[in-house]
């Protein structure tokens, strides 16, 4: 059976974009080699805990060493979190995409050696997990609430598919298929199998991707089973713990988490609000959207839409970040979006991008691609420093160094990016996202080429047995001018659809210098015609500076505004504006100016304006409170905003996204 897939082959798109090429190069030349050193315990760095929790293993990574022990090449015990294997798998996936973008025999040789090691660590029946192979073979699949066995398996399947697509080498796909076969033998509705699911969604994503490559339908059916079984027996994860003779916890304290944390409080298809651990939720939705697309399951797609609406309409930050609380790294309730105690984990941001991408396969609508862009340009890339060697686990919207140091409830809010984490899921997750950024630009469906993102690239697209060469030129996100030139073998009738971003209120579209007819649907401009060789489409998206206001139900942002220009959200940083940023207020008639500064933070468009700053008068002395205070006095102050993603790349200091403004 030939699987219809409207994704563009990553080999057929070459990113030439100044903005994103910098990140792709940074990952290849800095991040991947650096992470390889970390995984081998060769990097001379301090590994930090992402929050104040002494149970987090932060002595070393030991990830590669764990595989060597499981393979029988070394002796010893497993070190690190039970899901430490996934750091290696995500690194391998990032390597795969990097090799797709640019051949590198030496890097491929290293990757081949890792695959050889993984093969040696795999057990005869296909089972693969170093923690259980080394230290707890009798507990396999018995504590799925905390074991992350299927989570790690899913990450390996994703990496295997990516490496196979990049190199054509079958070994990695054979290992992944053997692992998937093992899972299919152990889980399912049949008698004698485990009628359950993993505590952390991910295997569902991997199985669906493995199905697309192998066309083995049982992998898709297994993914669908895990999704539809989830929450049907909401006690399954907890009952497993009770049945396990060995009561020792694998992850301290996780067994006290409520059902919503694992998204098992009700069947998945009945869920309509984003609950629990944010990464798990968007991973679940990513799989749900993909399986809905592959099976044409309308009920699944409807569930995706309900969850998407709740996330993006009531539980998402202006930066595209999600996860309102450190407790459980979770969603809380509608409109609860605090700026200085939030979580906004990097993994959750890229997970939201994955969800959006898979929704676009079934339904090309700007409600998905606008969020895809928002997440990628703001809360995702803010997770990595400009040197590619320091990372944020948490992406706050407001920071005070004193609060991070002395307030235990804000210990997770870092003021500078650490070198690595004891729970190191975010750095390799970001690496695999950045190296595969090309796959998010276009989809092809129903004789239509959809352009979801704007970045300079050259792409070769297949459409109705015709080959279309498409070249996109732009200086996005600093400029909204986009040129798209076409090369076709012969005059061909098809449709080009271009996203009209939600931040753009004025635009023009021309074909060969002339006005062109187009229709607008679901946030896209559709041009249908007989396209000929050398046709040139020019799009100009007016990039004005917008003041973003939050829904009045978001208490923390009432009376405040955030600035956005193009896809980028901006912030104030102490480096430019001094301390006590909370005393700064925008005037009612404020005028903004934008200037590109090639020497600041790797080259950014900064925004400046005149504002006012509250003068703390001597009348206060040492009093905390005074009655009948005099009218406040302000001093004039010129302030500078920088793109949110670029903050914390200079000296330590305060940062704010939401700024007070006179009404």
TrEMBL record:
Residues 448-543 form the Non-reducing end beta-L-arabinofuranosidase-like GH127 middle domain. Keywords: Hydrolase. Residues 547-660 form the Non-reducing end beta-L-arabinofuranosidase-like GH127 C-terminal domain. Residues 13-438 form the Non-reducing end beta-L-arabinofuranosidase-like GH127 catalytic domain. InterPro entries: 6-hairpin_glycosidase_sf (IPR008928), Beta-AFase-like (IPR049174), Beta-AFase-like_GH127_C (IPR049049), Beta-AFase-like_GH127_cat (IPR012878), Beta-AFase-like_GH127_middle (IPR049046). The keyword Glycoprotein does not apply. Gene3D superfamilies: 1.50.10.20. GO terms for molecular function: hydrolase activity. Signal peptide: none annotated. Pfam families: Beta-AFase-like_GH127_cat, Glyco_hydro127C, Glyco_hydro127M. SUPFAM superfamilies: Six-hairpin glycosidases (SSF48208). Transmembrane segments: none annotated. PANTHER family: DUF1680 DOMAIN PROTEIN (AFU_ORTHOLOGUE AFUA_1G08910). This is Glycoside hydrolase family 127 protein.
